[in-house]
UniProtKB/TrEMBL annotation:
Residues 46-146 form the Mandelate racemase/muconate lactonizing enzyme N-terminal domain. It comes from the Bacteria. It holds the Pfam family MR_MLE_N. It comes from Devosia algicola. SUPFAM superfamilies: Enolase N-terminal domain-like. The lineage of its organism: Bacteria, Pseudomonadati, Pseudomonadota, Alphaproteobacteria, Hyphomicrobiales. This is Mandelate racemase/muconate lactonizing enzyme N-terminal domain-containing protein.
Length: 177
């Protein structure tokens, strides 16, 4: 499902966001996976694309594994109140957008008790803004975020795949700090 949440074609500020697109994804997965939360016969996700007035675009993703239709809840939050608030922000650096959104919508977050869903939407916007800034500057996202040239990356065990205590207890210790 693709949703153009909002267009702001009259935006005049250089590099301001003038289009937000959201893609609510769902895919049936036969037999699972089984997570620490529950059986997940349908995997869901929410991707967003932010486009600025200069044509640069960036992508972000909101966590939507649970509840099963959590992506639709987050789509609704993006549509209103987050998108109108995002369009109303003054021009600033990409890294100022998330804290400004959190500040402006704090009262609503507390009032509704939707701390997680709002945080997931803010994270998706933060990712998209960083991606947009890196693409505009012609650099990698890692460079934008201050990473040096890495030759190795530490790994970790993803324990959500283990459904029994014995499997968890026998999980390999490799990668643990």
């Amino acid at each position: 499902m693709k949703t153009v949440l909002m267009d702001q074609p009259g935006a005049t500020s250089a590099h301001s966001i003038d289009r937000i697109e959201a893609y609510a994804l769902a895919c049936a997965v036969e037999g699972g996976p089984v997570s620490t939360l529950a059986l997940m016969p349908v995997r869901t996700g929410l991707l967003i694309k932010l486009t600025s007035t200069d044509g640069a675009a960036g992508w972000g993703e909101a966590w939507c594994n649970y509840p099963p239709k959590g992506n639709l809840n987050k789509l609704g939050l993006l549509e209103d109140p987050i998108a109108p608030t995002l369009f109303d922000l003054p021009r600033s650096g990409w890294d100022a957008v998330r804290p400004t959104l959190e500040n402006r919508l704090h009262r609503m977050v507390v009032h509704t008790g939707e701390f997680g869903p709002f945080a997931h939407c803010f994270a998706a916007i933060d990712m998209a803004m960083a991606d947009l800034a890196a693409r505009r500057d012609g650099i990698s996202l890692a460079t934008l975020l201050g990473a040096g040239q890495a030759t190795k990356a530490r790994v970790y065990a993803r324990l959500a795949r283990y459904t029994r205590r014995r499997q968890f207890a026998n999980a390999p210790a490799r990668g643990r700090p």
